[in-house]
Structures are given as structure tokens and as C-alpha cells.
Design a protein that fits this description.
Layout (H helix, E strand, L loop, with lengths): L1 E3 L1 H7 L3 E5 L6 H4 L4 E5 L10 E15 L10 E4 L6 H11 L4 H4 L5 H16 L6 E7 L2 E11 L2 E9 L8 H15 L4 E7 L3 H9 L3 E13 L4
Parallel strand pairs: 2-3, 8-9
Antiparallel strand pairs: 1-2, 3-10, 4-9, 4-10, 5-6, 6-7, 7-8
Helix pairs in contact: 3-5
Length: 227
């Protein structure tokens, strides 16, 4: 099954599709595209005139939310009026450093950064997120998290701590505040997507009581004359 992706195509100025490789796909149907994301594809699946350039395993962690105490950390909600957007952008890049749009070298660094800059802007204006929380350490922003609620399930969009503040428990405090706020709103579950290859993140979420909901292999295929 092939699906044209108009948003991705416009943003990257390419003709991009997604392919569900659990269905049979004819090579001729792909020739109009510059590249595509193949979901659930076999390790070495071959498509005529295309080269696989990057592969990851998207993993979604999930936790049933229970009563939890709030943290006394200095955590504040911010919106589009927030002035220190550059620090949020830096945190967004940190959050996305294991992203396929960063690690697939066929995407330029500026494209990766523009993508995450847009993610920040649309989170602050509440299109992509219901809230953006920043945590302060010694009057400096140390980390942030965004989340979106969909009925009884919430999803983390971005979460990161600046390198200079890592190892000080800021990520734990941010996650604790999110779980506290969501439980008070009656939200039953929190889901967090990451990459299976991001061992630090996977270990962190496992220690915080999250279990694996799903693992999806994703492969980028680029047309030979596009690379």
C-alpha cells in the first residue's frame, strides 16, 4: 500500500510516500516518487531504482498512570509568548539527535533543524502539543517536554535535557510532572515514542516503569538519481 505524503513532500521539496511493506507493492508504482519510508519492510528488501539509506526501529513505550506525587522542581508552562525560543530549539535538536531525519545523511542538517524548529513553534502555539514544560536549574533552562492528549491517552512529543545538565535527574522530574498533571486530568495512559537504537532513552523509560507497546522497523529508500 502506497500513500503520498503531501506535508513531507512540500516541506522537503521532494515527492515522498509511505509504503506499508506488509502489502505487495509493484516497482512501477513507486517510480514517480523521489524517496519513500517503508514500514515493516524486510531487512534487505529490494525496490527497482531505489537504494535503502537508513533503517531504524521505532519503539513506543506505554505506562498505566497511577497516583503520583508532584515534584518540587522549578517547572513552568510556556507558550508562543515565551522569548527564549533559541534554547527550546537547542533542546529540540538534542531531542531529535537520534531521529531518522538527522541520521539519514541524505537530509541536510538545515532540513533537520528546520523540521524541529517548526515542531517547537507549533508546540508553543498548541497545534502540536497541549502543553510545553521547561525545567530550570540555577535560573537556567535545563530541559523541556511537550505532550499531546488524545481522549484517555497522552503522548510525549519532545523531551530533552541539555548536555550540561544531564545526569542530574531533570528528565525524571519532567516526566514526573507530566504524569502528575495527566493523572489529575483523568488520563489513563502515557505513551512515549523513541528509537530502539537509542539505548539510553530505552533504558530510562524502562526504569521509570514503561513497557514496550510496539516496535516498527522503518527504512528510507531514495531513488538512485535523487541521492
Amino acid at each position: 500500500m502506497i500513500k503520498h505524503l503531501p506535508w513531507d513532500s512540500d516541506f522537503f521539496n521532494l515527492n515522498i510516500a509511505s509504503v506499508d511493506a506488509t502489502h505487495e507493492v509493484a516497482d512501477i508504482e513507486l517510480q514517480e516518487f523521489d524517496m519513500f519510508y517503508s514500514f515493516h519492510s524486510e531487512e534487505n528488501k529490494v525496490f527497482k531504482n531505489f537504494q535503502p539509506t537508513f533503517r531504524e526501529h521505532k519503539i513506543i513505550f506505554e505506562k498505566q498512570l497511577l497516583q503520583i506525587a508532584d515534584t518540587d522542581a522549578d517547572i513552568r508552562s510556556v507558550d508562543e509568548k515565551f522569548k527564549d525560543v533559541s534554547t527550546l530549539q537547542e533542546l529540540a535538536y538534542e531531542s531529535g539527535k537520534h531521529s531518522r531525519f538527522n541520521l539519514d545523511g541524505n537530509f541536510a542538517e538545515r532540513q533537520f533543524k528546520n523540521l524541529y524548529n517548526l515542531w517547537i513553534s507549533n508546540s508553543l502555539n498548541r497545534q502540536f502539543a497541549d502543553d510545553v514544560l521547561v525545567i530550570y536549574q540555577n535560573d537556567k533552562i535545563g530541559g523541556f517536554v511537550t505532550f499531546k492528549i488524545n481522549q484517555e491517552i497522552a503522548t510525549i512529543g519532545l523531551i530533552a535535557v541539555l548536555p550540561e545538565f544531564q545526569g542530574q535527574g531533570l528528565g525524571t522530574k519532567l516526566l514526573q510532572r507530566v504524569e502528575y498533571l495527566l493523572f489529575r486530568k483523568g488520563i489513563q495512559k502515557l505513551q512515549i515514542p523513541t528509537q530502539q537504537e537509542n539505548l539510553d532513552a530505552c533504558g530510562f523509560y524502562t526504569k521509570k516503569g514503561y513497557s514496550i507497546l510496539s516496535i516498527t522497523p522503518i527504512t528510507h529508500y531514495w531513488k538512485n538519481d535523487t541521492i
